[in-house]
């Protein structure tokens, strides 16, 4: 419940169809297509849902930095629950990178620094990118996916645990 098919044999799935227009249910009902690799996950958020969650986190981050007993606190760095950990990396310019991960996942700090490096290389150096706008750069997307796949393959008890 709450999960959806995200990819079949590496091809992205959007709703009921793959990126190349194949019907997922028809593909899965054909025995000739097996063995098959299916990636499950949470459904993708719309742009409005992403903006709403980001503004909610920004408010919590500000409240956390004001309520902290530590003078000059930078805000929330990690929020831990029994089912996930929320990690936040704030750059010197105030940009926040947020990652939700399994509580046992190791190496998230390194992943956040890698995401910042990818952002610096492919978004900030892109003359067509405007600050505080969605990043629409294929190289950024490709490198971000690669970094996430490497982190995912490291597993919940990867290096640094």
TrEMBL record:
The keyword Metal-binding does not apply. It holds the Pfam family Sybindin. SMART domains: Sybindin. Keywords: Cell membrane, Endoplasmic reticulum, ER-Golgi transport, Golgi apparatus, Membrane, Postsynaptic cell membrane, Synapse, Transport. Signal peptide: none annotated. Transmembrane segments: none annotated. It is found in: Endoplasmic reticulum; Golgi apparatus, cis-Golgi network; Golgi apparatus membrane; Postsynaptic cell membrane. GO terms for biological process: endoplasmic reticulum to Golgi vesicle-mediated transport. Gene3D superfamilies: 3.30.450.70. GO terms for cellular component: endoplasmic reticulum; Golgi membrane; postsynaptic membrane; TRAPP complex; vesicle. The keyword Transport applies. Its main location: endoplasmic reticulum. InterPro entries: Longin-like_dom_sf (IPR011012), TRAPPC (IPR007233). Core component of the TRAPP complexes which has a function of guanine nucleotide exchange factor activity for Rab1 GTPase. Plays a role in vesicular transport from endoplasmic reticulum to Golgi and autophagy. May play a role in dendrite postsynaptic membrane trafficking. Part of the multisubunit transport protein particle (TRAPP) complex. Component of the multisubunit TRAPP (transport protein particle) complex, which includes at least TRAPPC2, TRAPPC2L, TRAPPC3, TRAPPC3L, TRAPPC4, TRAPPC5, TRAPPC8, TRAPPC9, TRAPPC10, TRAPPC11 and TRAPPC12. Interacts with SDC2. Belongs to the TRAPP small subunits family. TRAPPC4 subfamily. This is Trafficking protein particle complex subunit.
């Amino acid at each position: 419940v709450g999960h959806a098919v995200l990819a079949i044999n590496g091809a992205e799935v959007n709703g009921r169809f793959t990126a190349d227009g194949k019907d997922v249910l028809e593909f899965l009902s054909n025995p000739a297509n097996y063995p098959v690799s299916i990636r499950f996950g949470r459904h993708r958020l719309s742009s409005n849902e992403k903006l709403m969650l980001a503004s909610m986190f920004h408010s919590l981050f500000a409240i956390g930095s004001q309520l902290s007993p530590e003078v000059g606190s930078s805000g929330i760095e990690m929020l831990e629950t029994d089912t996930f950990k929320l990690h936040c990396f704030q750059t010197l310019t105030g940009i926040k990178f947020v990652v939700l991960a399994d509580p046992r996942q190791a190496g998230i700090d390194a992943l956040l620094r890698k995401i910042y490096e990818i952002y610096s290389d492919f978004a900030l150096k892109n003359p067509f990118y405007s600050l505080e706008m969605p990043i629409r750069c294929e190289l950024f997307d490709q490198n971000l996916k690669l970094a996430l796949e490497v982190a995912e393959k490291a597993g919940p008890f990867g290096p640094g645990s």
